[in-house]
Specification:
alpha/beta, Rossmann fold, five-stranded mixed sheet, five-stranded mixed β-barrel, 13 helices
């Protein structure tokens, strides 16, 4: 026997606002039911049967006729299905994704002239996700309670949380609807929990423009700028990681703006594993752009310490994404992002025309997984770098760009040369300290200005068709 809420009948809607209100009503009622049952359980009132709550679903059926009447603006890369059929997805956290849900539903209705169906899915909400990021489930339970949990409540199930849709490996079974979105509700909920764990901040604070860095110096400068910017230029608040006994592994800081159009900055530390980890989770928030700002090794003798590198291609030897996106898959440079970064360099440095080449080179960035790559045999590694025409090397940029491509998030990279190991200029303490003081502030100003330019372009133009496959989901 299973204890559930009284079944709610599915309903069809012609209005995106009303459809969203139905999603919110279903989700909240299911979560409230689960939380009330868990509260009783935690106080010794053990349910007599298993308790289940379920995610809401959104479904649309696009007929041959409605597909032929497709009204989509062909400049846009999302908001419509790729062929006639039945499509659906499960949904979660309308408190975070409310605007996003409304926009996606509105696009579907406008483009296809179809109703959408909202109802209760057959996908259970794991109790951990119903309780939310602030609840430590195991904190007040005895070992006996913990042993009873799987029999009384649904626990997270990895079978419902993979990235097959994003990876284009999902196979639609006979009679099954095709996916509307890249991520299922349980996959999203898992990432929301992980974001709180890794960054020390709740998902609700994340903004649509995200900067990743690999040094705390950038965060220190961003904090100064962020705190000073509150109340100016539309910025409303600055959020830092919650105070605690320890600093989170990848602390995030949020310069907030209405509708999530501010800037989030995350210190991801060093290495492709961290880069993949954090972008796997930020991607579910569907940001409008993310950039990598950090330090790199310059590979050309003509480069100077402090020069900028604008990546237009990547040699990927990160060894963390090869199962999801093979290294031989090209990552296209996105013109809007490239131009925004270049224009930002010109504005901040006040250099124009050919003079910009004095401080910035555009080329291929090599991303590796070995921090001590300099200690490898020089003939083998130099040949690889030479053949790829790489001009810089780091440990994160290629991974962040690849996950941007994989998850359809516009991406870009602007690095700063901090050492030149192949030319005898190693990163040593004295040199590094001097370099950090001189360059971090300007580099960050360039990154922030680039994000402002991208925000002015607008999300409809940013979400490039270069990031979409030939059989793509409708949701951005």
């Amino acid at each position: 026997m299973v204890k559930t809420l009284k079944k709610i009948k599915s309903r069809n809607f012609k209005d995106a606002d009303k459809a969203f209100e139905a999603i919110k009503e279903i989700y909240q009622s299911q979560v409230d039911f689960l939380c009330a049952q868990f509260d009783g359980f935690s106080k010794g009132k053990v349910p007599k049967e298993k308790v289940q709550g379920f995610y809401p679903y959104l479904r649309i059926e696009v007929t041959e006729n409605s597909y032929k009447k497709l009204k989509s603006d062909k400049k846009f890369s999302y908001g419509f299905v790729s062929k006639p059929g039945v499509y659906d997805t499960t949904l979660t956290r309308p408190d975070i994704f409310g605007r996003y849900m409304f926009e996606q539903i509105d696009h579907l209705m406008s483009n296809h002239g179809c109703d959408v169906e909202i109802g209760v899915s057959s996908t259970p909400i794991p109790i951990h996700f119903a309780l939310g990021e602030d609840f430590h489930l195991e904190g007040d339970l005895t070992q006996e309670d913990m042993d009873d949990m799987p029999n009384l409540f649904d626990l997270p199930d990895l079978e419902t949380m993979d990235d097959q849709i994003a990876n284009a490996t999902h196979v639609v079974k006979e009679g099954e609807a095709q996916p509307l979105a890249l991520f299922t509700a349980p996959r999203i909920d898992l990432s929301l929990m992980r974001l709180k764990h890794y960054t020390g901040t709740k998902a609700e604070h994340f903004q649509n423009f995200v900067i990743y860095t690999n040094y705390q110096f950038y965060i220190d400068e961003f904090t100064k700028i962020g705190e000073d910017s509150v109340g100016k230029d539309g910025y409303t608040d600055f959020i830092s990681p919650e105070a605690g006994a320890r600093m989170p592994q990848m602390p995030a800081y949020h310069l907030k703006r209405d509708c999530g159009m501010g800037i989030t900055m995350i210190n991801i530390g060093v290495g492709p594993s961290n880069a993949k980890n954090i972008t796997d989770h930020v991607a579910v928030l569907r940001p409008h752009a993310w950039l990598m700002l950090g330090h790199c090794a310059g590979l050309r003798n003509s480069q100077e310490l402090g020069d900028y590198v604008l990546a237009h291609g990547y040699l990927r030897e990160d060894n963390v994404l090869y199962h999801d996106l093979k290294p031989n898959i090209p990552l296209p440079a996105l013109s809007e992002v490239q131009l925004a970064l270049e224009d930002a360099v010109k504005e901040v440095t006040k250099l124009h025309g050919h003079d910009v080449k004095k401080v910035m080179r555009t080329g291929t960035v090599a991303t590796v997984d070995d921090r001590n790559w300099e200690l490898r045999g020089s003939v083998r590694q130099n040949q690889r770098f030479s053949q790829s025409r790489a001009i810089a090397l780091d440990m994160e940029s290629g991974t962040i760009a690849a996950n941007g491509f994989r998850f359809r998030v516009p991406y870009g990279t602007l690095l700063c040369v901090s050492d030149k190991p192949l030319h005898g200029q190693l990163k040593l303490p004295g040199m590094a300290d001097s370099f950090y003081r001189e360059r971090v502030k300007q580099h960050l100003q360039v990154g922030l200005r680039a994000m402002e330019i991208l925000r002015d372009i607008g999300p409809e133009k940013l979400h490039s068709r270069k990031l979409r496959s030939f059989n793509e989901v409708a949701f951005q």
